[in-house]
Structures are given as structure tokens and as C-alpha cells.
Amino acid sequence: MPLSFSISDLRQCPAFFDTVADRIWQAWWKESGHPLDYISGRLRDNMNATPIPFALVAHDGGAFLGTASVIASDLAERPQFTPWVAAVWVEPQARGHGIGAALVDRATRDCFALGVRRVYLCARPLRSGYYEGLDWAVVERDIGPHHMNVLIRDRSPPGSD
């Protein structure tokens, strides 16, 4: 059964701020000893009027379903690459309904609308296939201590759509 959902900029749906911060913290930062306040502070940058960073939230009315962010840098080993789609999270009960793909697509399209020609994403090898299925291309493998793969998605030239 398909899930009904919308994708909104977190700046337009600030009620989801604490949930987004918690999911990012639980998934990627808690285990390394970073406090939730550290992630909340970083996420506050997404609430400014600047084009990047920004965070998206997938929701069904007031029910949180997932999130994705666009940030300047997501891999310390590749500071020259920017911007990055990062912190893609879908609630376990909402997985398998296209929400992650929709979040990644929206984040990418929003970057292209800002004039960005190439968007980056890093993923562990086990997750890379998912993004490759969404038309991302692996350009580097086994980067850094977490052995991340770097993927890219390029904006189509005008008139090629």
C-alpha cells in the first residue's frame, strides 16, 4: 500500500526540527560520543535563509517520515567537493515506499535549481548500490576510515531532458 507524503523544507516546517536532529544524532553521531546538542547546533544552520545548507523533511501531515540535508561538505578527505546530499534517513516503518528516493531526488533538484552543476554523496559500500539505482555514479571507493564511496550526480545539459 503506497504511503502518502509531502516533502518540505525544514524552514517551512520547524515543528520537525527536534525529530530531524534526533534521527541524525541517533544514526550517525551518538555512537561516537557527540551530544545531541552538537547536532542540534549544526542543524540550526539549516534554518538560516542561505541557500546551502538546507534540510528537507518527508511527512504525512504531522507524521515525520524521513529527512535529507544538503551541506557544503560531508567528507573531510574531500573538502574541495561541494555540495553534498547527506543525512538521508527514513523511518523504519516508512521504508520501501520511495521516500528515500524522493528525498534524494528533491535535494538534488533543489541544488540544480541553485545553479549547481554537480552534487556529491558519500555512502558505505553496502549502500552505494541503492544510490547507483537512483542514477548516481561512483567516482571513488574506499575513502577515509569508514571506507566510503563517493558518488556524483551531474545536472543534465540544457535541452537534454
Automatic annotation (TrEMBL):
Keyword field contains Electron transport? no
Q: Which PROSITE patterns match?
A: GNAT
What UniProt keywords apply to this chain's record, in alphabetical order? Answer: Transferase
Q: Which GO terms describe its molecular function?
A: acyltransferase activity, transferring groups other than amino-acyl groups
- Residues forming the N-acetyltransferase domain are 8-153
InterPro entries hit by this protein: Acyl_CoA_acyltransferase, GNAT_dom
Q: Origin organism of this chain?
A: Bradyrhizobium canariense
Question: What protein is this chain from?
Answer: Acetyltransferase (GNAT) family protein
